[in-house]
From TrEMBL:
Cofactor names: pyridoxal 5'-phosphate
UniProt enzyme class: isomerase
Transmembrane regions listed in the UniProt entry: none
Keyword Coiled coil assigned: no
Protein name, UniProt field: Glutamate-1-semialdehyde aminotransferase (Aminomutase)
Top-level lineage group: Bacteria
Keyword Transferase listed: yes
Species assigned in the record: Candidatus Desulfosporosinus infrequens
GO MF assignments: glutamate-1-semialdehyde 2,1-aminomutase activity; pyridoxal phosphate binding; transaminase activity
E.C. numbers: 5.4.3.8
């Protein structure tokens, strides 16, 4: 999920990590169904034809996916500013949603990395599975469905990340924040019953 969402070098470049193995999903194919992996020489030399591990796939090297991937990676390389713009949009969205939550008395926990964000219905810091379990699932469920009523589709669980894209406009962000005001009020009323 963090392959090219946070930086051209992935999250590993942001955190200064040199992994043994990197796995990339559909972004490597411009959103089409493809994956890729790469790693340290001694690991990669285990893959055939150099090594004993056979790897193949029906869609391996699919021309359409490879063309889409090359185009996507070229566009990202030519527009490094896209990552900062996405992060700024995501920060604005999270700040706006937080403000709406505070208006009705909800203390939410937000996490953001580049264009990825998460929102937890808890007043406790969330840093692992145990702390995430303190989140109010019923509140999120009400919030999620209220957002759908307003035409905003979020991941159906607060334990999944949300994603900003270059296609999201300032108007989209404003509409999402406005929808969240309605949704938080609905959560407040439903939980008060």
């Amino acid at each position: 999920m963090t392959g090219f969402r946070v930086a051209y070098g992935g999250a590993q470049s942001v955190f200064g990590i040199k992994p043994d193995l990197t796995c990339l999903g559909k972004i490597i194919g411009g959103g089409l169904p493809v994956g890729a992996y790469g790693g340290r020489r001694e690991i990669m030399e285990m893959i055939s034809p150099a090594g004993p591990v056979y790897q193949a796939g029906t869609l391996s090297g699919n021309p359409l996916a490879m063309t889409a991937g090359i185009t996507t990676l070229t566009l990202l390389a030519e527009s490094p500013e896209i990552y900062e713009k996405l992060a700024q949009k995501t920060t604005a969205l999270c700040a706006g949603i937080r403000k709406q939550a505070e208006k009705v008395g909800f203390d939410l926990q937000f996490h953001q990395l580049g264009a990825m964000f998460g929102m937890f219905f808890t007043d406790q810091p969330v840093y692992d599975y145990e702390s995430a379990k303190t989140s109010n699932i019923d509140a999120f469920n009400i919030f999620f469905h209220a957002m759908l009523e307003k035409g905003v589709y979020l991941a159906p669980s607060q334990f999944e990340a949300g994603f900003m894209s270059a296609a999201h406009s300032e108007e989209d962000i404003a509409a999402t924040i406005e929808a969240s005001a309605y949704a938080f009020e609905k959560v407040r009323l439903e939980l008060a019953k």
